Amino acid sequence: MLEAIGLERVISDGYSFQIEMVYLSALQGFKVTEVPILFEDRLAGASKVTRGEIVTDFLSVIKMRLRHGG
Predict the structure, then answer these.
(1) Which candidate, 27, 20, 35, places its Cα nearest to that of 4?
(2) What residues contact residue 16 under an 8 Å CB cut-off, 6+ apart?
(3) How far is CA 43 from CA 21, 39, 40, 47, in A?
(4) Would you tell me how many other CB atoms lie within 10 Å of the CB of residue 68?
(5) pLDDT of residue 70
(6) HEC string of 4-55?
(7) For 23-29, which contacts have Cβ atoms below 8 Å and span 24 or more sequence positions?
């Protein structure tokens, strides 16, 4: 699957890397399934994800759609 995707095509890093890998896999015709997991509520500390990362990841989804089509 990684050969079919062509890792040189991947433009994302960080959390959006996962989104792009799923997107490119689906574009190549691979079956994509969701496997549910259960996250427990955080008992201490704060999320490491910043608002800036959320915006960056959202924009990277738009960029990958424009770059890869689909």
Answers:
(1) 27
(2) 56, 57, 60, 61, 64
(3) 31, 12, 9, 11
(4) 14
(5) 60
(6) HHCHHHCCCCCCHHHHHHHHHHHHCCCCCCCCCCCCCCCCCCCCCCCHHHHH
(7) 23/64, 23/65, 23/68, 23/70, 24/68, 25/1, 26/70, 27/68, 27/69, 27/70, 28/1, 28/4
Cα–Cα distance, 15 to 31 (Å, whole number): 21
pLDDT of the residue at 33: 93
Q: Which residue ranges make up each domain of the chain?
A: 2-33+50-68
The beta strands (E) that lie in the chain are given as none
Q: Which residue stretches of the chain have pLDDT < 50?
A: none
